[in-house]
Write a structure and sequence with these properties.
With 77 residues, the chain is mainly α. The chain has three helices and no strands. Helix 1 packs antiparallel against helix 2 and helix 1 packs parallel to helix 3. The N and C termini lie far apart (45 Å).
Length: 77
Amino acid sequence: MTDRPDLNVLMREVIDLAREARRLARAGGNDVAASSADNFEQGAANAYRNQNREQLENNLTAARSLVEHLRALTPKA
């Protein structure tokens, strides 16, 4: 048995990260980043439906990277 998270957990993470990415993108006026977040979430949804763990993990990694990048661009209050 492995300790890898199930597909539901991975999908929830992608959804949460995509929401945060869209919020940060809107705050910074970055339409391309918001569109990318949508694409990562849609790609993850397709992978989830097809039970494709590798592709779901790839979309999770991409969404996580996008959020990290957008956080770095967001000025601290």
